[in-house]
Model the fold of this input.
Amino acid sequence: MTLRRPFVADHFHDLPGFVEARHGHNWEIAATVRLTESADHHAEAVFADSLDTWVATLDYTLLNEQPSLDGRNPTAESLASWAFHYLKAEGLNPECVRIREKANYWAGCRSAV
Done:
């Protein structure tokens, strides 16, 4: 099952060779989790609730101030990894998490096969 959620957040980059002023994006997450064939409506609701909770954590925030990104550059790649591991910690079985930062720019994190 794949769910998508939009969110808005600012970030900036201040690393050697990668400096950008604070700016914002209309981001989107597309997360796919594997549900068992016998999964019921409750399993789908748990997935939706978990994804909504993750989005609420960073919607309308400055990503550089997120404790889960401490010491990391707040890129789409970092967000995809964070969301993937968050869903896994919630007891879900994520297959792929993709984050859209710009119209044609996506970054993803997949499970190892």
